[in-house]
Specification:
Radius of gyration: 42 Å
Structural class: mainly alpha
Strand order of the largest sheet: 1-2
Shape: elongated
Number of domains: 4
Largest sheet: 2 strands, antiparallel
Number of helices: 21
Number of strands: 6
Distance between the termini: 58 Å
Helix content: 55-70%
Length: 546
């Protein structure tokens, strides 16, 4: 018999004459082997995680042999479930798998630590492989997995608060916690602190920015949609002259073929209301000449009626409103206040006319409706006329059409509250876009500062700056191209500003223009909710080291 001492100190016997190669093969299959460096190799077919492997590993350790690294037996198989699970567990999927498999091995008598390390390495390798072979699908799967977990793990607390600032704080706090958890889980064992720090800071910053970004994006969408409505209106909008002609036709309809007479008592009610306001304002000939002139015009109508043979017809009301409109444009605040009151009371008077207040003409109720429609149409014509006048004056300004139109609109309309209130929300938005500019027109304006042209010294300085910057960027060619591009930008800015002004005129000329509601910053928009649910849970993992 051939006797061989085993690694554990026991003796094994083999038949005489058995070849040495066969004896070594049997020993390898049953007990493994140890190479010259002391590295132990497991027996054939013995897999980590089994009780037999654990017994063999313990035996080799007692004998002083170096155990093999479990990672050397890792698999490279992967599927889309790997990133999905990683997202669903906030980056802790590999560790959870290792803990589960290690626990099962320990329950069967195996070694928890070695199995845990092996499964963690295999999971990480599989995840890395799937990210390499399917980068787009992996990101989508990881995001999809993180969404339900993010909502459950504190996500329901995000977005709490009645104001935009409060929502930013609550969402930032949730983002901080989720980002830290995801960052730690998605990092290696020696980088968990760094991953938690980076993920937490990033998650907190992104979380705080989500309500602000959602509000800003929603505002951009609202303005874009309202802009398309205004563009469509500008293409078919009538001019101020067209509106005045339409108003005249409506006034003629109101007469029914005969002069439309307004009951004397009804007009006296209007006159009494205006007189009461004038007395409260204490208008006098020395300080308020235009207001006194308007008041005298109203009184002269009443005096003519008192003398007999004269009726108050549509023409009187029409001329009275025109006169009040001119006084309302006065630079004198008291005159403008008095005239605006006359306009408002006149419109209210016409709007509340009763059949008994009208004498003669067609059907009284229809006549009143036609009269008010005529005045309303004339009012729209006046608003369009204001914008037309601002464009005309602005185009002749020394600063150039772009700046001239903006400044004239601001001076003639925006800075006068009484006039500004006559425009509805859509019209005001259109005028604001002319005054403030859009991102596109402001960009062209900025580029235009580096071009020659115009009537101001600023253009000369800007052109020189354009030459200098162009030379720095592209030498002699850039020196020529710089101011040329600046001039192109300035011309584009002027055309865009004039186009915005035309759009504002179209808004003022269009009756019943649709006005989209403004975004309420104290209510979460669908965009904000989507960002909060989809983006927030993934931030920590996407920026953490892997």
């Amino acid at each position: 018999m051939i006797t061989v001492q085993l690694p554990n100190g026991d003796l094994a016997q083999f038949p005489d004459g058995m070849p040495t190669e066969e004896i070594e093969a049997v020993l390898q299959r049953q007990f493994g082997s140890v190479d010259a460096s002391g590295q132990a190799a497991p027996p054939d077919g013995l897999q980590p995680g089994t009780r037999e492997y654990a017994d063999w590993a313990a035996q080799q350790a007692r004998a002083g042999a170096t155990l093999p690294e479990v990672g050397r037996h890792q698999t490279t198989e992967s599927s889309i479930l790997d990133p999905f699970v990683q997202g669903a567990t906030f980056g802790w999927g590999d560790e959870l798998r290792g803990a589960v498999q290690g626990g099962i091995a320990a329950a069967q008598g195996g070694d928890f630590g070695s199995v845990y390390d092996q499964v963690v390495d295999e999971s990480r390798n599989a995840l890395d492989r799937e990210r390499r072979v399917n980068p787009v699908g992996s990101v989508a799967a990881e995001i999809a997995g993180a969404i339900p977990t993010g909502i459950a793990a504190g996500g329901q607390l995000a977005g709490r608060g009645a104001s935009l600032g409060a929502r930013a704080l609550s969402t930032g706090a949730v983002g901080l916690g989720q980002g830290a958890a995801y960052g730690a889980g998605a990092s290696g064992d020696d980088q968990r602190g760094q991953g938690a720090l980076v993920g937490g800071l990033t998650g907190g910053a992104v979380g705080a920015a989500v309500p602000l970004a959602g509000n800003a994006i929603s505002n951009m969408i609202q303005k874009s949609q309202q802009g398309r409505i205004l563009d469509a209106a500008a293409k078919v909008a009538p001019t101020a002259d067209d509106l005045r002609s339409a108003a005249s036709n409506l006034f003629e309809q109101a007469t029914g073929g005969t002069p439309l007479a307004i009951n004397d008592n009804a007009y006296m009610r209007l006159l009494g209301d205006v007189q009461q306001f004038g007395q409260k304002l204490r208008i006098n000939p020395n300080l308020d000449q235009k207001s006194i002139g308007l008041w005298e015009m109203m009184r002269s109508i009443a005096d003519d009626v008192a003398q007999g043979g004269v009726v108050i017809d549509m023409k009187d009301m029409h001329l009275l409103r025109q006169a009040a409109q001119r006084v309302a444009m006065s630079s004198e605040g008291r005159d403008a206040a008095f005239a605006n009151t006359v306009i408002n009371k006149l419109d209210d008077f016409v709007q509340t006319l009763k059949p008994a207040d009208i004498l003669g003409g067609a059907d009284p109720s229809q006549a009143a409706k036609a009269l008010y429609s005529g005045i309303s149409t004339w009012s729209r014509a006046n608003k369009v006329g204001l914008i037309e006048e601002a464009i005309r004056i602005g185009q002749s300004q020394a600063a150039g059409p772009e700046k001239g139109i903006r400044n004239t609109l601001r001076r003639m309309i925006f800075n006068k509250p009484d006039i500004w209130r006559r425009f509805n929300a859509a019209e005001q938005q259109a005028i604001r876009e002319v005054i403030d500019g859009t991102p596109g027109s402001n960009l062209m304006k900025l580029i235009g500062t580096f071009g020659f042209g115009g009537n101001t010294a600023t253009n000369g300085i800007g052109g020189a700056a354009g030459m200098a910057l162009g030379q720095m960027a592209a030498g002699p060619v850039g020196m020529v191209a710089g101011p040329v591009l600046g001039s192109i930008g300035r011309n584009a800015s002027e055309r865009m500003t004039e186009g915005l002004a035309q759009r504002a005129m179209g808004a003022a000329a269009t009756e019943g223009l649709k006005v989209l509601p403004r975004v309420n910053p104290n209510q979460a928009t669908p965009i904000e909710v989507l960002l909060r649910k989809a983006a927030l849970p993934n931030v920590g993992g996407l920026v953490s080291p892997r």
